[in-house]
Amino acid sequence: MKAKIAIGLIGFAAIAAVVGCMGIKPTKIVFVSDRDGNNEIYAMNINGGGLSQITTNGFEDIEAMISPDGEEIVFSSNRDGNFEIYVMNFDGTNVRRLTVSGSDDRQPCWNPDSNKIVWVSYQGDQNHLYQMDKDGANVIQLTTVVADNSAPFWGHGNRIYFGSNRGGNYEIWRLIAGATETGVEQITSIGGYNHFPAVSPNNEKIAFVSDDSGSFEIWIMNRDGSELTQLTDNGGPNWSPKFLSNSKAIVWQSYSGGGNFDVWRMNADGSDPVNLTSNASVNSSPSAARR
Asked: pLDDT tens digits for 110-126?
C-alpha cells in the first residue's frame, strides 16, 4: 500500500511539472483546517505539498470553495457576528461580504461560470436554498418546501443539486436555477441518508454521501441516478466529495484514521486513496480547481 501511494504521489508531481512548463494552470485544493487554533482557509497542491494559509483571524472561516476559474474563493464566516457568505481573491485579498441577514448563511457553491453563488439559509426548523450574483445582487429564493434543503451544488445546464428530507428521508434532488421550486426532480430513492452531491466538471457523474452500507461512505452515480457504485469502505464517516477539474479524481474529508478528519484524494473509481493532510488537526471541506 505504501509503495502504491508513493508511486501515485510521484505521478501527480510529474504531471504538475509538465503542465507548469506548458503554461497550464495546475490544480489547487482549497480546504479548511483548525491547525492554528480556529478554522481558517488553506490551499495546497494535489499531492498535499505547497501548503499556504489564506485567512488569518480569530473567527471561524468555514465551507470554502474555490471558483471553477480558480480566481476566487467563496466561504462562510462569523467574523461579523453570525455566519454570512463572503468572497475573496484566491490569495485572501479583497474580502467582500455578500449576505446580511439574521439567519446563518452557509454552504456556498459557485456555478460553473464562476459568476453566481448558491447557498443555504438556516431558518430554525427549515433550511432553504438561495442564489445570487457573485457581488451579492439579484437574490432569489429557490426552495420553499418546509424541510432541510442543504448542501447545494450548481451543475451544468443551470441545474442545482442538493440534499433534502422533503420526502421523509434524505435523498438527492435537483431543481432549475433562477426561480422558486422550478423543475424539482428527485434523483435518488435509496432510503436512509443520501446527501452532499457534487457534479463532475464533465457533467457525467455525481459523487455523494450515503449510509446505505451501514456507514457514511462516498458513492458515485450517473446524473440520472443510475449505476450506483460505492467508492469508499473505511467505516468513515466520509463527507463533502468534490471532483478535480479533470473529473478523474475526487477529494473528500474522512475520519477513517488518526482520530480526526483529514482531506483525502482518490481516483473517481475509488482506487488509490491518499491522505493529503495527515496531522492532528481537523481538515475539512476540500474543493479543487485550476489555479
From this structure: 999 999 999 999 998 89
Burial profile 213-239: b = 16 or more Cβ within 10 angstroms, e = fewer: eeebbbbbbebebeeeeebbeeebebb
The 3-state DSSP class for residue 125 equals coil
Could you tell me whether strands 27-33 and 229-230 are parallel, antiparallel, or unpaired per DSSP bridges?
unpaired
Domains identified in the chain and CATH numbers: 2-290 (2.120.10.30)
Q: What is the pTM (predicted TM-score) of this model?
A: 0.91
Q: What is the spatial distance between Cα 165 and Cα 147, in angstroms, rounded to a whole number?
A: 6
Going by the DSSP 8-state scheme, the letter that residue 101 receives in this structure is -
Contacts of residue 162, defined as CB under 8 A and 6 or more positions apart, other chains included, come to 129, 143, 149, 150, 151, 152, 153, 172, 173, 174, 175, 197
pLDDT in tens, 93-112: 999 999 999 899 999 999 99
* Cell 429557490 found at: 142
Spatial contact of 76 and 63, defined as CB atoms under 8 Å apart? yes
Cα–Cα distance, 291 to 282 (Å, whole number): 24
Residue 183 host element (H or E):
none
In 3D space, the residue among 4, 88, 60, 8 whose CA is nearest the CA of residue 284 turns out to be 60
CA max distance for the chain: 52
Please tell me whether residue 161 adopts helix, strand or coil conformation: strand
Asked whether the beta carbons of 284 and 50 are under 8 A apart, the reply is no
- Based on C-alpha coordinates, what's the Rg of the chain? 18
Cβ-proximal residues to 145 (8 Å cutoff; 6+ apart), any chain? 164, 166, 181
Query: What single-letter amino acid sits at 18?
Result: V
Distance CA 42, CA 45 (A): 11
Distance CA 87, CA 134 (A): 8
